[in-house]
Amino acid sequence: MSTVKTFEKVEQELLNLIQSEFPLVEEPYKAIANQLGTSEQHVLDLMVDLKRRNVVRQVSAIYDTRRLGYKSSLVAMKFDDDELDAGAQIINEHPGVSHNYGRTGHFNLWFTVAVEPGISMEETVEKMAKETNAIAWRLLPTKQFFKIGVNFDMVNKRSNAKANYAILDSKKNVGSDVDKDWDKAQPVSARDMEVIREMQEDLEVITRPFDGMAERLGMSAQEMFNYSDDMVKRKLMRRFSAVLYHRRAGFSANAMVVWNVPPERSQEVGDLMAMSPHVTHCYERPTYDDWKYSHYTMIHATTEDECEEIAVEIAKEIGIHDRQLVFSTREYKKTRVRYFV
Length: 341
Known about the structure:
Order of helices and strands: HHHEEHEEHEEEEHHHEEHEEHE
Radius of gyration: 20 Å
Number of strands: 13
Strand order of the largest sheet: 5-2-4-3-13-10-12-11-6
CATH architecture of the domain at 144-180 and 250-332: 2-Layer Sandwich
Structural class: alpha+beta
Helix content: 25-40%
Number of helices: 10
Largest sheet: 9 strands, antiparallel
Distance between the termini: 34 Å
CATH topology of the domain at 144-180 and 250-332: Alpha-Beta Plaits
Protein backbone atom coordinates (compact mmCIF):
# COMPACT_ATOMS: atom_id res chain seq x y z
CA MET A 1 0.00 0.00 0.00
CA SER A 2 1.32 3.45 -0.94
CA THR A 3 2.25 5.85 1.83
CA VAL A 4 -0.01 8.87 1.73
CA LYS A 5 1.35 12.26 2.73
CA THR A 6 -0.90 14.80 4.44
CA PHE A 7 -1.75 17.52 1.94
CA GLU A 8 -1.56 21.21 2.73
CA LYS A 9 -4.72 23.26 2.18
CA VAL A 10 -3.34 24.94 -0.95
CA GLU A 11 -2.42 21.52 -2.39
CA GLN A 12 -5.94 20.24 -1.75
CA GLU A 13 -7.47 23.27 -3.43
CA LEU A 14 -5.08 22.98 -6.38
CA LEU A 15 -5.92 19.30 -6.89
CA ASN A 16 -9.65 20.01 -6.73
CA LEU A 17 -9.32 22.76 -9.31
CA ILE A 18 -7.22 20.98 -11.93
CA GLN A 19 -9.36 17.80 -11.83
CA SER A 20 -12.44 19.75 -12.81
CA GLU A 21 -11.20 22.00 -15.58
CA PHE A 22 -7.60 22.90 -16.31
CA PRO A 23 -7.60 26.40 -17.87
CA LEU A 24 -6.93 26.49 -21.61
CA VAL A 25 -5.09 29.82 -21.64
CA GLU A 26 -1.58 30.79 -22.65
CA GLU A 27 -0.35 30.99 -19.03
CA PRO A 28 -2.51 28.43 -17.21
CA TYR A 29 -0.46 28.21 -14.02
CA LYS A 30 -0.75 31.97 -13.54
CA ALA A 31 -4.54 31.67 -13.99
CA ILE A 32 -4.62 28.90 -11.39
CA ALA A 33 -2.48 30.96 -9.03
CA ASN A 34 -4.91 33.86 -9.30
CA GLN A 35 -7.78 31.56 -8.34
CA LEU A 36 -5.85 30.19 -5.36
CA GLY A 37 -4.53 33.58 -4.21
CA THR A 38 -0.88 32.62 -4.54
CA SER A 39 2.01 33.11 -6.98
CA GLU A 40 2.57 31.37 -10.32
CA GLN A 41 5.95 30.09 -9.11
CA HIS A 42 4.30 28.53 -6.07
CA VAL A 43 1.82 26.68 -8.30
CA LEU A 44 4.62 25.52 -10.61
CA ASP A 45 6.61 24.24 -7.62
CA LEU A 46 3.55 22.44 -6.23
CA MET A 47 2.80 20.81 -9.60
CA VAL A 48 6.39 19.57 -9.95
CA ASP A 49 6.24 18.10 -6.45
CA LEU A 50 2.80 16.50 -6.92
CA LYS A 51 3.96 14.85 -10.14
CA ARG A 52 7.22 13.75 -8.54
CA ARG A 53 5.22 12.10 -5.75
CA ASN A 54 2.97 10.53 -8.40
CA VAL A 55 -0.14 12.17 -7.00
CA VAL A 56 -0.86 13.86 -10.33
CA ARG A 57 -0.59 11.26 -13.08
CA GLN A 58 -1.16 13.44 -16.11
CA VAL A 59 -2.65 16.70 -17.32
CA SER A 60 -4.03 16.42 -20.84
CA ALA A 61 -7.10 16.28 -23.04
CA ILE A 62 -9.57 13.47 -22.39
CA TYR A 63 -11.25 12.13 -25.52
CA ASP A 64 -14.30 9.94 -26.07
CA THR A 65 -13.11 6.55 -27.28
CA ARG A 66 -16.29 5.50 -29.07
CA ARG A 67 -16.91 8.84 -30.74
CA LEU A 68 -13.42 8.63 -32.24
CA GLY A 69 -14.42 5.35 -33.89
CA TYR A 70 -12.57 3.04 -31.50
CA LYS A 71 -14.30 0.01 -30.00
CA SER A 72 -13.74 -0.58 -26.28
CA SER A 73 -14.73 -3.15 -23.71
CA LEU A 74 -14.24 -4.25 -20.16
CA VAL A 75 -12.85 -7.78 -20.01
CA ALA A 76 -12.92 -10.23 -17.09
CA MET A 77 -10.44 -13.12 -17.01
CA LYS A 78 -9.77 -15.95 -14.61
CA PHE A 79 -6.23 -17.26 -14.00
CA ASP A 80 -4.58 -19.72 -11.70
CA ASP A 81 -3.04 -17.65 -8.92
CA ASP A 82 0.51 -18.54 -9.95
CA GLU A 83 -0.11 -17.38 -13.54
CA LEU A 84 -1.96 -14.13 -12.79
CA ASP A 85 1.04 -11.77 -12.74
CA ALA A 86 2.58 -13.17 -15.91
CA GLY A 87 -0.75 -13.01 -17.71
CA ALA A 88 -1.32 -9.42 -16.63
CA GLN A 89 2.09 -8.34 -17.92
CA ILE A 90 1.42 -9.86 -21.35
CA ILE A 91 -1.94 -8.09 -21.54
CA ASN A 92 -0.28 -4.78 -20.57
CA GLU A 93 1.75 -4.91 -23.76
CA HIS A 94 -1.33 -4.17 -25.88
CA PRO A 95 -1.37 -0.39 -26.56
CA GLY A 96 -5.15 -0.28 -26.22
CA VAL A 97 -5.13 -1.58 -22.64
CA SER A 98 -5.55 1.44 -20.38
CA HIS A 99 -6.65 -0.06 -17.04
CA ASN A 100 -5.64 -3.48 -15.74
CA TYR A 101 -6.36 -4.66 -12.18
CA GLY A 102 -6.06 -7.80 -10.15
CA ARG A 103 -9.35 -8.15 -8.25
CA THR A 104 -11.08 -10.37 -5.72
CA GLY A 105 -13.81 -12.77 -6.78
CA HIS A 106 -14.47 -15.40 -9.45
CA PHE A 107 -12.62 -13.47 -12.18
CA ASN A 108 -9.31 -12.24 -10.81
CA LEU A 109 -8.13 -9.96 -13.66
CA TRP A 110 -10.18 -7.09 -15.06
CA PHE A 111 -8.98 -4.77 -17.80
CA THR A 112 -10.27 -2.34 -20.40
CA VAL A 113 -9.11 -2.52 -23.98
CA ALA A 114 -9.73 -0.33 -27.03
CA VAL A 115 -9.11 -1.36 -30.64
CA GLU A 116 -8.85 0.80 -33.73
CA PRO A 117 -11.59 0.91 -36.38
CA GLY A 118 -11.60 -2.27 -38.46
CA ILE A 119 -10.05 -4.46 -35.76
CA SER A 120 -12.16 -7.25 -34.20
CA MET A 121 -12.57 -6.88 -30.44
CA GLU A 122 -13.61 -10.53 -30.07
CA GLU A 123 -10.57 -11.84 -31.95
CA THR A 124 -8.23 -9.50 -30.06
CA VAL A 125 -9.43 -10.66 -26.64
CA GLU A 126 -9.57 -14.33 -27.64
CA LYS A 127 -5.94 -14.08 -28.76
CA MET A 128 -5.02 -12.50 -25.41
CA ALA A 129 -6.78 -15.31 -23.53
CA LYS A 130 -4.89 -17.99 -25.47
CA GLU A 131 -1.51 -16.25 -25.10
CA THR A 132 -1.92 -15.93 -21.34
CA ASN A 133 -3.44 -19.36 -20.60
CA ALA A 134 -6.56 -17.79 -19.12
CA ILE A 135 -8.96 -20.37 -17.64
CA ALA A 136 -12.00 -18.33 -18.67
CA TRP A 137 -12.83 -14.88 -20.01
CA ARG A 138 -15.90 -12.74 -20.55
CA LEU A 139 -16.27 -9.80 -22.90
CA LEU A 140 -18.28 -7.06 -21.16
CA PRO A 141 -18.83 -4.10 -23.51
CA THR A 142 -21.06 -1.22 -22.46
CA LYS A 143 -24.74 -1.76 -23.29
CA GLN A 144 -25.94 1.41 -21.57
CA PHE A 145 -23.94 4.35 -20.30
CA PHE A 146 -25.14 6.20 -17.21
CA LYS A 147 -22.16 8.11 -15.84
CA ILE A 148 -18.46 8.77 -16.00
CA GLY A 149 -17.05 11.55 -13.86
CA VAL A 150 -14.04 10.79 -11.66
CA ASN A 151 -13.46 13.62 -9.20
CA PHE A 152 -11.94 13.49 -5.73
CA ASP A 153 -12.77 16.24 -3.24
CA MET A 154 -9.39 16.58 -1.56
CA VAL A 155 -10.61 19.15 0.96
CA ASN A 156 -13.51 17.06 2.32
CA LYS A 157 -11.83 13.67 1.69
CA ARG A 158 -14.65 12.16 -0.35
CA SER A 159 -15.49 11.30 -3.92
CA ASN A 160 -17.37 14.09 -5.68
CA ALA A 161 -18.11 12.48 -9.02
CA LYS A 162 -20.41 14.32 -11.38
CA ALA A 163 -21.83 12.95 -14.61
CA ASN A 164 -20.42 14.09 -17.93
CA TYR A 165 -23.52 13.68 -20.05
CA ALA A 166 -26.34 13.62 -17.49
CA ILE A 167 -27.68 16.36 -15.29
CA LEU A 168 -28.75 14.56 -12.16
CA ASP A 169 -29.89 17.44 -9.97
CA SER A 170 -33.18 15.86 -8.92
CA LYS A 171 -34.90 12.51 -9.29
CA LYS A 172 -37.53 13.87 -11.63
CA ASN A 173 -34.77 14.95 -14.05
CA VAL A 174 -32.67 11.80 -13.82
CA GLY A 175 -31.31 10.85 -17.21
CA SER A 176 -33.15 13.66 -19.00
CA ASP A 177 -30.00 15.01 -20.63
CA VAL A 178 -28.15 11.74 -21.24
CA ASP A 179 -26.55 11.76 -24.68
CA LYS A 180 -28.50 9.20 -26.69
CA ASP A 181 -25.70 8.93 -29.26
CA TRP A 182 -22.93 8.26 -26.74
CA ASP A 183 -21.75 5.15 -28.63
CA LYS A 184 -21.96 6.54 -32.19
CA ALA A 185 -18.69 7.26 -34.00
CA GLN A 186 -18.37 10.79 -35.38
CA PRO A 187 -16.40 12.00 -38.42
CA VAL A 188 -12.76 12.61 -37.52
CA SER A 189 -10.62 14.58 -39.96
CA ALA A 190 -6.88 14.36 -40.51
CA ARG A 191 -6.57 17.73 -38.75
CA ASP A 192 -8.59 16.41 -35.80
CA MET A 193 -6.13 13.54 -35.51
CA GLU A 194 -3.16 15.91 -35.49
CA VAL A 195 -4.69 17.97 -32.68
CA ILE A 196 -5.61 14.84 -30.71
CA ARG A 197 -2.08 13.47 -31.00
CA GLU A 198 -0.67 16.71 -29.55
CA MET A 199 -3.19 17.41 -26.80
CA GLN A 200 -3.34 13.86 -25.44
CA GLU A 201 0.27 14.13 -24.25
CA ASP A 202 1.13 15.15 -20.68
CA LEU A 203 1.39 18.93 -20.27
CA GLU A 204 4.75 20.42 -19.33
CA VAL A 205 5.05 22.28 -16.05
CA ILE A 206 6.36 25.56 -17.47
CA THR A 207 4.93 29.07 -17.72
CA ARG A 208 3.66 28.71 -21.31
CA PRO A 209 3.16 24.96 -21.80
CA PHE A 210 0.83 25.21 -24.81
CA ASP A 211 3.17 27.21 -27.07
CA GLY A 212 5.16 24.19 -28.24
CA MET A 213 1.99 22.21 -29.01
CA ALA A 214 0.51 25.06 -31.02
CA GLU A 215 3.74 25.66 -32.91
CA ARG A 216 3.95 22.00 -33.93
CA LEU A 217 0.36 22.24 -35.16
CA GLY A 218 1.10 25.40 -37.14
CA MET A 219 -1.43 27.53 -35.28
CA SER A 220 -1.53 30.05 -32.46
CA ALA A 221 -2.29 28.93 -28.93
CA GLN A 222 -5.66 30.68 -29.06
CA GLU A 223 -6.52 28.93 -32.33
CA MET A 224 -5.68 25.62 -30.66
CA PHE A 225 -7.93 26.48 -27.70
CA ASN A 226 -10.75 27.40 -30.09
CA TYR A 227 -10.24 24.12 -31.93
CA SER A 228 -10.46 22.27 -28.62
CA ASP A 229 -13.68 24.08 -27.73
CA ASP A 230 -15.13 22.96 -31.05
CA MET A 231 -14.12 19.35 -30.35
CA VAL A 232 -15.91 19.56 -27.00
CA LYS A 233 -19.05 20.84 -28.77
CA ARG A 234 -18.76 17.93 -31.21
CA LYS A 235 -18.34 15.63 -28.16
CA LEU A 236 -15.08 14.17 -29.43
CA MET A 237 -13.28 15.68 -26.44
CA ARG A 238 -14.67 15.54 -22.92
CA ARG A 239 -12.42 18.03 -21.19
CA PHE A 240 -8.82 19.06 -20.50
CA SER A 241 -7.92 18.15 -16.94
CA ALA A 242 -5.69 16.31 -14.50
CA VAL A 243 -5.99 12.68 -13.50
CA LEU A 244 -4.83 11.71 -10.03
CA TYR A 245 -3.26 8.53 -8.76
CA HIS A 246 -6.12 7.86 -6.35
CA ARG A 247 -4.17 5.77 -3.84
CA ARG A 248 -1.50 8.45 -3.45
CA ALA A 249 -4.25 11.05 -3.16
CA GLY A 250 -5.64 9.23 -0.10
CA PHE A 251 -8.42 7.18 -1.74
CA SER A 252 -6.85 3.80 -1.12
CA ALA A 253 -9.99 1.65 -1.47
CA ASN A 254 -11.39 0.91 -4.91
CA ALA A 255 -14.48 -1.28 -5.29
CA MET A 256 -16.25 -2.32 -8.45
CA VAL A 257 -19.77 -3.12 -7.26
CA VAL A 258 -21.68 -5.42 -9.60
CA TRP A 259 -25.47 -5.64 -9.32
CA ASN A 260 -28.10 -8.13 -10.48
CA VAL A 261 -30.75 -5.75 -11.85
CA PRO A 262 -34.01 -6.95 -13.44
CA PRO A 263 -34.05 -5.95 -17.14
CA GLU A 264 -37.29 -4.00 -16.75
CA ARG A 265 -35.61 -1.75 -14.14
CA SER A 266 -32.36 -1.21 -16.03
CA GLN A 267 -32.78 2.47 -16.92
CA GLU A 268 -34.44 3.47 -13.64
CA VAL A 269 -31.80 1.82 -11.47
CA GLY A 270 -28.88 3.04 -13.59
CA ASP A 271 -30.11 6.63 -13.33
CA LEU A 272 -30.49 6.36 -9.54
CA MET A 273 -27.03 4.85 -9.15
CA ALA A 274 -25.53 7.67 -11.19
CA MET A 275 -26.90 10.23 -8.76
CA SER A 276 -24.48 9.16 -6.03
CA PRO A 277 -21.39 11.41 -5.82
CA HIS A 278 -19.48 8.32 -4.64
CA VAL A 279 -20.08 6.54 -7.96
CA THR A 280 -17.48 7.56 -10.54
CA HIS A 281 -18.58 5.17 -13.32
CA CYS A 282 -21.92 3.49 -13.95
CA TYR A 283 -22.66 1.12 -16.84
CA GLU A 284 -24.93 -1.72 -17.90
CA ARG A 285 -23.08 -4.69 -19.42
CA PRO A 286 -24.01 -8.15 -20.80
CA THR A 287 -24.77 -11.06 -18.49
CA TYR A 288 -23.73 -14.72 -18.85
CA ASP A 289 -24.91 -18.01 -17.38
CA ASP A 290 -22.02 -17.90 -14.90
CA TRP A 291 -22.16 -14.11 -14.40
CA LYS A 292 -25.60 -12.64 -13.71
CA TYR A 293 -24.55 -9.09 -12.88
CA SER A 294 -25.69 -6.42 -15.31
CA HIS A 295 -24.88 -3.06 -13.65
CA TYR A 296 -21.43 -1.86 -12.62
CA THR A 297 -20.66 1.02 -10.27
CA MET A 298 -17.13 2.12 -9.43
CA ILE A 299 -16.65 3.46 -5.91
CA HIS A 300 -13.49 5.10 -4.56
CA ALA A 301 -13.17 5.75 -0.83
CA THR A 302 -10.56 6.00 1.91
CA THR A 303 -11.26 2.49 3.30
CA GLU A 304 -12.91 -0.76 2.21
CA ASP A 305 -15.39 -0.40 5.07
CA GLU A 306 -16.45 2.95 3.63
CA CYS A 307 -16.97 1.31 0.23
CA GLU A 308 -19.21 -1.27 1.92
CA GLU A 309 -21.22 1.48 3.65
CA ILE A 310 -21.71 3.34 0.36
CA ALA A 311 -22.88 0.13 -1.37
CA VAL A 312 -25.42 -0.42 1.43
CA GLU A 313 -26.73 3.13 0.97
CA ILE A 314 -27.12 2.60 -2.78
CA ALA A 315 -28.82 -0.77 -2.23
CA LYS A 316 -31.40 0.87 0.05
CA GLU A 317 -32.01 3.61 -2.50
CA ILE A 318 -32.61 1.26 -5.43
CA GLY A 319 -34.19 -1.63 -3.52
CA ILE A 320 -31.74 -4.22 -4.90
CA HIS A 321 -29.46 -6.24 -2.62
CA ASP A 322 -28.05 -8.94 -4.94
CA ARG A 323 -24.55 -7.54 -5.44
CA GLN A 324 -20.84 -8.22 -5.08
CA LEU A 325 -18.06 -5.83 -4.12
CA VAL A 326 -15.01 -6.68 -6.23
CA PHE A 327 -11.99 -4.99 -4.67
CA SER A 328 -8.76 -4.30 -6.52
CA THR A 329 -5.77 -6.18 -5.12
CA ARG A 330 -3.14 -4.88 -7.51
CA GLU A 331 -2.91 -2.22 -10.17
CA TYR A 332 -1.04 -3.59 -13.16
CA LYS A 333 -1.66 -0.65 -15.48
CA LYS A 334 -3.50 2.64 -15.49
CA THR A 335 -2.99 5.11 -18.29
CA ARG A 336 -4.94 6.89 -20.98
CA VAL A 337 -5.46 5.35 -24.37
CA ARG A 338 -3.24 7.10 -26.92
CA TYR A 339 -5.18 7.62 -30.12
CA PHE A 340 -4.00 7.66 -33.73
CA VAL A 341 -0.37 6.92 -32.88
